[in-house]
Design goal:
The protein has two domains: 216 residues, 2-Layer Sandwich (Nucleotidyltransferase, domain 5), CATH 3.30.420.40; 177 residues, ATPase, nucleotide binding domain (Nucleotidyltransferase, domain 5, 2-Layer Sandwich), CATH 3.30.420. It is α/β, with parallel strands linked by helices. The longest helix has 27 residues. It contains 16 helices and 21 strands. Strands 17-18-16-15-19-20-21 form a seven-stranded mixed β-sheet, sandwiched between helices.
C-alpha cells in the first residue's frame, strides 16, 4: 500500500482527502467539514480550534497512511507565547483592521521598493500589513502561518513552509529567503518565524506517521496539481478566489508588473506563480448567503438561459468584505450606466460574465508582462464544475479551456508527499503527466 492524507482547508470548507498511489492515483474523501468564521467584538476570526478538530476527525477517518500534508489559504497566522500557547484567535484576512496600518507601512517602505524586493501584489490583507495592525506581537515568541500552526499542533515541530511564506510580502523571491530590507523598514521581526522549509521536507510525525511539508499555500498545491502536458499553459485556480496566471522559472519584478498588480508567489520545485487574485465565486457565494439560496445549479441554469448584459469590475475593493453583495453589484451596475440585475439568475449571469472578462484581461496582462505565450487554459478547483463559467472563459480568452480536476489542490499536496516518500518519481512535469493520465479532461473550445 502507499496512501497519503491531504488536509486542505479552504475559505468555506475543509477536507481530508486520501490518495492511494498503488495503481495510478485513486482519490477518496475521508472527511469534509464547514469553515465558518466568527465575528467577535467587531473582529472577524477563523474558528481555528473547530478547524483543528476537523483535521483530527479527518485523519482518524482516513485510517493508516504513509504520510500527511497540510495546505490552507495564505497570509493568515497564529501567534504563540514562550510556552507555545496560542495568543488569541487568528484573524480572518477579510477583516478590515489593516486599513489604517497600510499607509503606515507604505510610508516606511514605498510600494515600489516593497514590490522590487518581494514581488507581491498589493492586497490589503498581506501579512506585512496585518502585522502592522497587530498588538499581540509584543507578547509573541513565534509566528506560525495557518498550515504551519496546524502542523505544529500535530507534530510539536515548528517550521515555515516557503510557498506560503511568500504570501507574507516579507520574502525575496530571488533568494527565497526573508528580505532583510523589508523586515527592517516595515519593522517586522522575521525571527518570529521558525526556519523555512520546502515542499517535500520532513515536518515531524503524528502518531508515528510522517508529516511532510507540501505546497502549504493552497494555490501552490493547486498549481502543482494542474494536469498540464506542455509548458505553455495558463491556469485558473477557481474557488472562492480565482487565481489567474502562469508558472515561470523566475520572478518578474518590473515597475509595469507592479502597476498591473501581479504577484510572484513561490511554487513547488523552485517555480514562481505569476498571477493576479481575481475576486472569484465569492461574489456569487455572498449573494447566495444573502438570498438564502444554497442551490447553485438552479442559478447557473437560469443564468445560462440569459444573454450577457452588465459587466462589473470584479476586483473592485468594495467586494472584499462580507456583506450585501447583491446591493453592491446593483450599485456598481447603476454607477456605470448598465442595466441593474433584478433576479438571482440575472445577478449570477452578471457575476460570471464579469469573471470571464477579468480572466481575459489578467491572462493578456500576464503574457505581455512575462513574455510567455500560452496555448491552453487549465481551470482547476470547484469552479471547474461550472460549465457556463468555463465556456464563457474559453470564449473571452479565445483559448481552449481544460477543466479539472476539481480536487487539484489535494492532488498537488498528495503528489509532493508521495514523491518525498518515494512512491512516485520525477519532476513537476512528470507528476503532471501522471495526473493527465489519471483523469478524463473536459475541454471547452472558444465559440
Ligand atoms: C486562496 C488563497 C489565495 C490568497 C487568499 C488569501 O484560497 O490562498 O491564494 O490570496 O486565499 O489567503
Amino acid at each position: 500500500m502507499s496512501a497519503f492524507a491531504a488536509v486542505d482547508l479552504g475559505a468555506s470548507s475543509g477536507r481530508v482527502m486520501v490518495g492511494d498511489f498503488t495503481r495510478g492515483i485513486e482519490l477518496t474523501e475521508a472527511h469534509r467539514f464547514d469553515n465558518r468564521p466568527v465575528r467577535v467584538g467587531g473582529v472577524l476570526y477563523w474558528d481555528i480550534l473547530a478547524l483543528y478538530r476537523g483535521v483530527l476527525d479527518g485523519l482518524r477517518k482516513a485510517g493508516p497512511v504513509d504520510g500527511i500534508g497540510i495546505d490552507t489559504w495564505g497570509v493568515d497566522y497564529g501567534l504563540l507565547d514562550a510556552d507555545g500557547m496560542l495568543l488569541g484567535n487568528p484573524v480572518h484576512y477579510r477583516d478590515t483592521r489593516t486599513e489604517p496600518a497600510i499607509d503606515e507601512v507604505l510610508a516606511r517602505i514605498p510600494p515600489e521598493r516593497l514590490y522590487a524586493e518581494t514581488g507581491i501584489q498589493f492586497l490589503p490583507f498581506n501579512t506585512v500589513f496585518q502585522l502592522a495592525a497587530e498588538s499581540r506581537t509584543r507578547l509573541a515568541e513565534r509566528l506560525l502561518l495557518i498550515p504551519d500552526l496546524l502542523s505544529y499542533w500535530l507534530t510539536g515541530v515548528a517550521g515555515t513552509e516557503v510557498t506560503n511564506a511568500s504570501t507574507t510580502a516579507l520574502l525575496d523571491p530571488r533568494t527565497r529567503t526573508w528580505s532583510a530590507e523589508v523586515a527592517k523598514r516595515a519593522v517586522v521581526d522575521t525571527n518570529l518565524f521558525p526556519p523555512l522549509r520546502k515542499p517535500g521536507d520532513p515536518a515531524g510525525t503524528y502518531d508515528g506517521t510522517p508529516v511532510y511539508a507540501v505546497g502549504s499555500h493552497d494555490t501552490a498545491s493547486a498549481v502543482a496539481g494542474v494536469p498540464a502536458t506542455s509548458e505553455n499553459f495558463a491556469y485558473i485556480s477557481s474557488g472562492t478566489w480565482s487565481l489567474v496566471g502562469l508558472e515561470l522559472p523566475e520572478p518578474v519584478l518590473t515597475e509595469e508588473s507592479r502597476a498591473a498588480n501581479f504577484t510572484n508567489e513561490l511554487g513547488v520545485d523552485g517555480t514562481v506563480r505569476y498571477l493576479r487574485n481575481v475576486t472569484g465565486l465569492w461574489l456569487l457565494q455572498e449573494c447566495q448567503r444573502v438570498w438564502e439560496i444554497p442551490d447553485t445549479e438552479r442559478l447557473l441554469d437560469e443564468a445560462a438561459a440569459l444573454p450577457r448584459r452588465s459587466v462589473i469590475e470584479a476586483n473592485d475593493p468594495r467586494f472584499l468584505p462580507p456583506g450585501d453583495m447583491p446591493g453592491r453589484i446593483a450599485a456598481a451596475c447603476a454607477e456605470t450606466g448598465q442595466p441593474v440585475p433584478r433576479t438571482p439568475g440575472e445577478f449570477t449571469r452578471c457575476v460570471l460574465d464579469s469573471l470571464a472578462e477579468a480572466y481575459r484581461r489578467t491572462l493578456e496582462d500576464a503574457m505581455r508582462l512575462s513574455g510567455k505565450r500560452v496555448e491552453v487554459v487549465h481551470v482547476v478547483g470547484g469552479g471547474a464544475r461550472n460549465e457556463l463559467l468555463c465556456q464563457l472563459t474559453a470564449d473571452a480568452c479565445g483559448l481552449s479551456v481544460i477543466a479539472g480536476p476539481v480536487e487539484a489542490t489535494a492532488l498537488g499536496n498528495l503528489l509532493v508527499q508521495a514523491r518525498a516518500h518515494g512512491a512516485v518519481r520525477g519532476d513537476l512535469a512528470a507528476m503532471r503527466d501522471l495526473l493527465a493520465h489519471s483523469q478524463r479532461p473536459h475541454v471547452y473550445r472558444p465559440q
